[in-house]
Write a structure and sequence with these properties.
Helix content: under 10%
Strand order of the largest sheet: 3-2-5-6
CATH architecture: Sandwich
Low-confidence stretches: none
Order of helices and strands: HEEEEEE
Number of helices: 1
CATH class: Mainly Beta
Shape: globular
CATH topology: Immunoglobulin-like
Number of strands: 6
Strand content: 35-45%
Radius of gyration: 14 Å
């Protein structure tokens, strides 16, 4: 992304993914954290209290980073990891 906008002013130019998080019932969860591993600084962030459940994430190394969703329901934690190596970036 080469444009000057709120995202690039905060994180610098680069490649980003935008994600909308959905659940059948958010009340089933006590915590849902999302993010990239390894992270360039923000780590996994909580989305339970995010009103629009949207996220934008800067990809710094598509071959080395994974996208992670970690959901807790109070007693059980489920972690999903998504490989990003197949992404193609277009300028």
């Amino acid at each position: 992304m080469d444009e000057d906008n709120q995202i690039t002013r905060a994180w610098g130019e680069g490649y980003f993914i935008a994600v909308k998080f959905l659940a059948r019932d958010w009340d089933e969860y006590t915590s849902v954290k999302v993010g990239l591993d390894p992270s360039a600084g923000s780590g996994l962030v909580e989305v339970i209290d995010d009103p629009d459940k949207n996220g934008v994430f800067k990809i710094t190394n598509k071959d080395g980073q994974k996208f992670v969703i970690e959901a807790k329901n109070g007693t059980e934690t489920k972690r999903q990891t998504f490989d990003l190596s197949a992404l193609s970036f277009v300028k």
